[in-house]
Design a protein that fits this description.
With 612 residues, the protein is α+β, with helices and mostly antiparallel strands. The protein is 47% helix and 20% strand. It has 4 domains: 201 residues, Beta-Lactamase (2-Layer Sandwich); 160 residues, 2-Layer Sandwich (Beta-Lactamase), CATH 3.30.450; 67 residues, Helix Hairpins (Orthogonal Bundle); 148 residues, Histidine kinase-like ATPase, C-terminal domain (Heat Shock Protein 90), CATH 3.30.565.10. The chain contains 15 helices and 19 strands. The protein has a 7-stranded antiparallel β-sheet, sandwiched between helices. Strands 9-8-12-11-10 form a 5-stranded antiparallel β-sheet, with helices on both faces.
Length: 612
């Protein structure tokens, strides 16, 4: 019978999903809501007492929620053919007695196992997604007890659902009729209630109760693991286990990135607890890696309320070692009984299910983020290839045209020396642009593949900075302000040259009106020496709010003045990654658009070892 519970619950979920697909998206929200009612029904049923009237009232209240009925009650058919009502306000003082219509309705529903709906003018049996009209004895008579019952309560329509033990459930609406989705939700909820009621009646000893909870664990675990949103999973964990253990509060603490425990989700029945008072218990349980049943003298600052805490642990697939995720705590109000060993064991088993669900949700979130990064990288790759191909193709086209001009002049001798010199200068400029675009492409490839290597070696920084192979353009004038007698330090000279060349090229490029570009270099802090470089210009500058975009991949200023300026948008990104690989920092400041910019680099520069 326990298997029936699981099968019926699973069938309910599948049926609702198939029905949603059949009806289309316009019914999707309603179907999802009704499905949630069914799942809540299964969860809450486990915490309801065993008193028949309590169970009956619970089932009827959940039927009203699932079917959006205004009222619900049970109709009973005894072995002698007597008919009676129970469970609803309308049942008081209303006894259909042995009316043929009442007996025929219950017999019809029970025999076919299919719901019946009526507006008291016509009556239909629901088979699959179809409404099949049929007739019942005395149904149209004014003596029809259901018509009288509906009239007294102001009801417009009624649904009769098959139930076990010679009875049926009646649901009433004051306005409108029952939709197919509501009928299906009611039928499913009634089937689950019958299966669980029968199973529960047979659980008279401890082993049967344990088996029942085990089946509930499987069902609940499947439901929790069907969700991939971490927030949703955490919420389901605490809202399921609390009612299962008749707790007044449930708290889930998870380890954050700093390896500290913090509250991730909580559930309260009625009494509101202060979550801070359970932090010491969570820390104690997490550090021990074992269950804690408190109050416990071994736990300092433990609250004086009955509770039980268990670690949530999964296994690392690479090392096959346990990995603690957090702590799950259930508590009761002060004065309530302590949790039994059976309840504590159940919580441990539930925590195992919770650990799997949390881990799956974390892995899904990691996969989702990785896929987003891959999509972003793929888009960036396409953009980068377009930019690089443009920055290589355009200079090469000009290069070829200029070479053709020179070759033609070898025959015609029409170019004067000044024009030839200008063409040669343009050839050098185009060749440098191709070389720069190629170098940036290689650097980006090394960075993205994790192969950006730094080779520190004794370097005469002053010599390197005063002999840069840099050609100012845009009518810019380069001014060097290099500290005299800069010491020989241990840095990567090629990478340092690449940083400075990129910063200077950037300064020339964004100074279309010309002006002074200054390269300043100093050694500072003798105890822990570092190289301080600054490249400043009198160019376009930038809005300080755009600073965070400058050093990102393809980061470019986006305004009318900078739009015509070419480039891959990778120069400053490469500078940042090289500087960070040295253990340094890079930043930029500007007083605003049109007021120039200053780019500063700070690199650790330990003295070069003595050659001797």
């Amino acid at each position: 019978m326990l298997i029936i519970v699981i099968l019926v619950a699973t069938l309910a979920i599948l049926t609702i999903a198939l029905f949603a697909a059949h009806k289309g998206r316009e019914k999707e929200r309603e179907i999802i809501r009704l499905g949630e009612h069914v799942l809540t029904f299964v969860r809450d049923f486990l915490s309801v007492g065993s008193e028949p009237s309590v169970v009956e009232d619970f089932i009827l209240s959940r039927l009203e929620m699932a079917t959006q009925a205004d009222s619900a009650l049970f109709i009973h058919l005894s072995a002698h053919g007597d008919v009676s009502l129970s469970g609803g306000a309308e049942a008081e003082g209303s006894r259909p007695g042995d009316f043929a219509a009442a007996r025929a309705l219950v017999a019809s529903v029970a025999g076919a196992g299919e719901p019946v709906v009526t507006d008291f003018r016509s009556i239909h049996r629901v088979k699959g997604n179809s409404m099949i009209p049929f007739s019942l004895e005395d149904w149209g008579s004014d003596d029809n007890p259901f018509k009288k019952l509906a009239s007294g309560g102001g009801f417009h329509s009624m649904m009769c659902l098959p139930a076990a033990q010679g009875r049926a459930a009646l649901c009433f609406k004051r306005a409108g009729t029952f939709s197919l989705s509501q009928i299906m939700a009611g039928k499913t909820a009634m089937a689950i209630a019958d299966a669980m009621s029968i199973a529960r009646m047979r659980m008279e000893d401890k082993s049967a109760r344990s088996a029942f909870k085990a089946s509930a664990l499987i069902s609940i675990g499947q439901n929790i693991n069907s969700h991939l949103s971490l927030d949703r999973v955490l919420s389901l964990i605490v809202s399921y286990v609390g009612p299962m253990l008749n707790a007044d509060g449930t708290f889930l603490f998870l380890r954050n990135l700093e390896a500290d425990l913090e509250l991730a989700a909580g559930w309260w029945k009625e009494h509101v607890f202060s979550t801070e008072e359970f932090q010491p218990v969570a820390e104690h349980c997490y550090s021990r890696g074992a269950m804690v049943n408190f109050p416990d003298p071994a736990v300092e600052e433990a609250p004086e309320v009955p509770g039980v805490a268990t670690p949530i642990t999964t296994y690392d697939r690479t090392s096959d070692q346990p990995r603690a995720l957090g702590v799950l705590i259930c508590v009761r109000k002060s004065g309530e009984k302590r949790f039994s060993s059976e309840e504590a064991d159940f919580l441990m088993s539930f925590a195992d299910q919770a650990a799997i669900a949390v881990r799956n949700a974390e892995l899904y979130e990691s996969l989702r983020q990785a896929n987003e990064r891959l999509r972003d990288l793929d888009q960036l790759k396409d953009e980068f290839l377009q930019i690089v191909s443009h920055d290589i193709r355009s200079p090469l086209s000009a290069f070829i045209g200029l070479v053709d001009t020179l070759l033609s002049d070898e025959k015609t001798h029409t170019l004067d020396p000044e024009k030839r010199e200008k063409i040669l200068s343009l050839l050098i400029d185009r060749a440098q642009k191709v070389s720069q675009a190629t170098q940036e492409s290689l650097s980006v490839a090394q960075i993205e593949s994790g192969q950006l290597l730094i080779h520190p070696q004794p370097t005469d920084v002053g010599e390197l900075l005063t002999h840069l192979d840099v050609r100012p353009f845009n009518n810019c004038a380069l001014e060097l302000d290099i500290q005299p007698d800069l010491p020989t330090v241990n840095v990567d000279p090629e990478r340092l040259r690449q940083i400075v060349n990129n910063l200077l090229d950037n300064a020339f490029k964004y100074s279309p009106g010309g002006g002074r570009v200054t390269l300043k270099a100093r050694m500072e802090n003798e105890a822990e020496p570092f190289l301080h470089l600054c490249v400043s210009d009198e160019g376009l500058g930038f809005d300080p709010r755009e600073q965070r975009y400058l050093f990102k991949k393809f980061g470019r200023l986006n305004n009318d003045k900078t739009a015509p300026i070419g480039g891959t948008g990778m120069g400053l990104y490469i500078c940042r990654r090289i500087v960070e690989a040295h253990g340094g920092r890079i930043w930029a400041v500007s007083d605003g658009e049109g007021k120039g910019a200053r780019f500063t680099v700070v690199l650790p520069a330990p003295p070069a070892p003595d050659p001797s």
